[in-house]
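HUMAN: Now follow token order:
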Amino acid sequence: MSSFPDAASWRAACAGDATLAAWAGPWSVCFAIASGPDTTVFNLVDGKVQPDGGDPAFTLAAPAPVWAKFLQPVPPRHHHGIFAMHYRIPEFTIQGEQLVFMQHAHVARRVLEIGKWLALGNAPPVPVSLAPREGPRAMPKVQGGYVPVTAGGVTYQIYYETAGTGRDVLCMHTAGSDGRQFHGLMADSRITRNHRLIAFDLPWHGKSPPPEGAIPGSWRLNTDLYVDLIMGFVAAAGLVKPIALGASMSGEICLELAYRHPEAFGGIVACEACDKINQRQTTWAAHPRVNQSLFVPEWIRALSAPQSPAEYQEAITWHYSQGGAAVFYGDIAFYSGDWDARERVGRIDTNRCRLFMLTGEYDYSCTVELSEATAAKIPGVKFQAMAGIGHFPFAENPRLFADYLLPVLQELDELKGPPN
């Protein structure tokens, strides 16, 4: 059973780590990592790891067998990151001052990565990411533009990008992110040779600005507004019965679209979706003493599978670090608050619009079990679990996700038949 290195070796590796060195600055924190009865304290002064311990403000604690799973080269699901364990492993606890932990979650995560690197028998330097690298990301050739969309009495300038030719696929990003999540799919000729992908940024996201005069931090998404924005964009962009594709927040709204507007779509692919999500809102994402550009990427980091290429995981965290004030928080107001389709999903008519549900093995937020339970309520839906994928399928591992998506697109294309 793998275990963490001795305290002196671990601290020394942290003191020499380039990532922690880049983060050094006018801040200090002391915390501990406890594996059963064994505790290692890390004391950082001005962001630099000291050779001796101190009085920890918080402790990440779990029994040794839990940490042993975390220390595996490819951990089993729910054991691959701090917040995955926090949500799904009862034996794992974050003890002490929660605010201090949330302010320094990125530092604690990096210290754990260094400990894992050493535990696996490697010597420093520790790479920026422990995830596998497959080479530079292929970037697509896209065309972009703006269309005005009015929803709730407000007109928004909505940015969108397109790539490929053929049948339209409407691509909807996850909470707090933007349409760049689809660049991996847009660069895959297996998809774009027969399909035109159209990805748009919700208001306040990516290149879609807030409306003029909006109060910073006031964005709050709800089910009705979300549907109105999507249907408004479909009309403004001149799309005719596109295939809808979304995940997480946009996977949930895919279910709502299947219920409210089945005739408007040529098929719907709802990824990482279920009829109700609990406990995904976090007040820390809008806390004035927590740096959102550091915290939000940490909050979502373990939602990706550990096998997903480092290049794509890094792009996801970069996108999430760029969100506006409380935009992620305002999205989760829909995802974990307003959204509740438990009384509606059973009335989705898949004869009017084919519905597919795909959920990643490593998704600890909307688990395979939650999605499968929702699918069981919908007559005619096709559900599939995706091995080796997490919560951001099209963004974290687009080539592997395409292996799951292509048969769905082919089935929908065959149902449509040849053009008139």
